[in-house]
Amino acid sequence: MKIPLAKADLSGNEMKYIEDVMKSGVLSIGPWIEKFEKKIADYVGVKHAIGVNSGTSALHLLMLAYGIGRDDEVITSPFSFIASSNAMLFVDAVPVFADIDPLTYNMDVSRVESKITKKTKAILAVDAFGQPIDMPSLREIADRHGLILLEDAAEAFGSEYRSHKAGSLADAAIYAFYPNKVITTAEGGIIVTNSNNTADLSRSMRSQGRAVTGQWLEHEMLGYNYRLSEIHSAIGVAQAERIDEILERRNNVAEYYNERLSRLDSVVTPYISVDVTKMSWFVYVIRVKKGTRNELMEHLTKKGIGCKPYFTPIHTQKFYMERFAGKPGFRPGDFPNTEDAGESCLAIPFYTGMTRDEQDYVIEEIGAYLDDKKS
Length: 375
Ligand SMILES: *Cc1c(COP(=O)(O)O)cnc(C)c1O
What we know:
Bound molecules: pyridoxal-5'-phosphate
Number of helices: 12
Structural class: alpha/beta
Helix content: 25-40%
Strand content: 5-15%
Mean pLDDT: 97
Number of strands: 12
Distance between the termini: 26 Å
């Protein structure tokens, strides 16, 4: 059996809406992006949603919209997809990492305040693997110190922390829609915010710095082409229509893994905080003993089972260590919880339409391999 790590569920109106776009002849800057933005804003419960061509573009625009620039420090998690920190490098700002909580894999909120210096401008919270971070506590810290609070909720679309949607308690947040994400637009991302100013700036900068209501060739500021096309937006509308069903099916897949894999002594299943009132599963990540992770990965790969070590700590990525050589916080050993997780975590196949047979095969192969190691 061949089982991919992730697979998009495109069983809704995706094809039909793409056809509608093609027939209309309007392939960019049309009604579909507006439809998509409205759906996302309504679902999250925020005033504005600004669609862009990737989650990474969305992060870049947040940095620019909040005036984060040269030598500004942004406190963030070293255990994340690299794009969350790269956004700071795009604007010559400096990521300042705080180690994670080894249970939730999210930045340990109690370590944040000690990282604040005169240069700190913002906190960029990240929701790891779909589990929303404790934003109410971060909000208190940010307000007490006059910091901007941003959230990379790329992996947590639909999750809730004490009934607050991931992304809704930040000054501005982003979601991403690459095919392995909770919902997809093929490539795409979106900014959500209640701030009119952030919304206007983001809309302008995603489209060459045009005035939001001005003439086509009037450019008010430096801008980019980060637009989300009508075709991508149409896919997003079809996906967003089924968000409740998608989240429920993903939850069922996760629960079956939880139940079966927690019976294996040598596997640690995901820990979800009691404050998470709704979990939107992005990936399913197990934890095994440091020494066995890579061998298990090799075994599963041989058996046709897709798996990946999520994540490689950002502070030990080679180009980070080179770029920030001599600065504290960019050496192996600096964030032990992150590094432990980086050596022991493994993402196993997880997607909306995953069948019980596929799950059983994965579970059996994990069990068989780890049993072998014990005897
Ligand atoms: C996927 C992801 C992104 C980037 O999204 P792209 O659409 O691939 O650019 C950013 N941050 C996190 C945490 C992600 O998982």
